[in-house]
Specification:
Radius of gyration: 28 Å
Number of helices: 15
Oligomer: single chain
């Protein structure tokens, strides 16, 4: 293996054009009887037996493949790192990590003169394709690719909006943590809106109805007066798919809040809602508007 490393470092090896070819192969570009050596097969085969137990050592051998591309144009050094991390889960050791203050701690890859961000994004993309969204978010943030970080989190926040379980809480916690660092990103406005909707959702399920209604009123997503219906419906057309996915559940929660507040105002004339008849009428009018707009949205 050391001989191969020395020969390759001095440009004395004739390398195969594809990592999927046999160990020795012919090329029309070469004179007979020249053969090309598939360095990828040799390195991957040699490191397979210790890659997971000693990933840093495997990384040193994978660097031999830097600059060799597969049929998709991907650098084989990055491809091998992605596969290694999938098997070993040692991305903190290999790629580094962000501490609690958002400062990067270097990993083993930082010793090499390569485009670190590009390689980390390649690994993140592989994690994303496997459905490992949390790992992908961590890696994209490590590469300072906050557009991808927010893109994934927006999708996960939308998908888990009504799940009201540990998955809901977990993605919300991660999103709140990322928000402290994700500035000057095009998707930030939509991202913050979804965080506000999570606040509304959590207040609703905690029984803090007035606070929940105050949050959704300030967001101006749902019309609570007759003259706001057309404007809100027009605004709905500009919503992203992720936000539209949440709207039906938001309307149901708003209707539930108004219904509960109306019943409370009607049943308790000494409640904090104020004058019973006037307050109950106002809440009833708001509930009717929400009902009308629900039908118009559905149409």
């Amino acid at each position: 293996s050391n001989v191969l490393k020395d020969l390759h470092s001095h440009g004395l090896l004739n390398i195969s054009l594809s990592p999927h070819l046999p160990i020795l192969s012919e090329s029309d570009e070469d004179p007979t009887p020249h053969r090309r050596l598939n360095l990828c097969r040799i390195v991957i085969g040699y490191t397979r037996k210790f890659a997971c137990s000693s990933p840093v050592s495997a990384l040193n051998y994978y660097y031999l493949l830097h600059g060799i591309q597969n049929e998709e144009g991907e650098d084989m050094f990055a491809v091998c790192i992605a596969d290694l991390i999938q098997e070993s889960k040692e991305y903190r050791t290999l790629l580094g990590y962000l501490d609690s203050a958002g400062r990067k701690t270097k990993g083993a890859i930082d010793r090499f003169n390569v485009n670190h961000s590009l390689i980390i994004c390649t690994v993140a993309e592989a994690a994303e394709k496997r459905g490992c969204w949390e790992e992908a978010v961590t890696l994209y943030e490590l590469a300072s690719n906050y557009e991808k970080v927010l893109e994934i989190l927006i999708e996960e926040l939308s998908r888990r909006f009504m799940s009201n379980d540990k998955g809901h809480e977990h993605v919300h916690q991660i999103a709140c943590d990322v928000e402290k660092r994700a500035h000057h990103v095009a998707l930030r406005k939509q991202f913050l809106l979804l965080l506000d909707l999570y606040q509304f959702h959590n207040l609703y399920h905690a029984g803090k109805l007035e606070e929940a209604l105050d949050v959704i009123t300030k967001l101006q997503l749902v019309p609570l007066t007759q003259d706001a219906i057309s404007h809100r419906i027009q605004g709905f057309k500009s919503f992203s798919d992720e936000l539209r996915r949440c709207v039906p559940d938001i309307l149901i929660m708003v209707m539930s809040i108004l219904n509960k507040m109306y019943r409370g105002a009607s049943q308790n004339s000494t409640s904090f809602y104020g004058g019973q008849n006037k307050q109950a009428q106002q809440i009833r009018d708001q509930a009717k508007v929400c009902g009308d707009v629900t039908l118009q949205y559905a149409g």
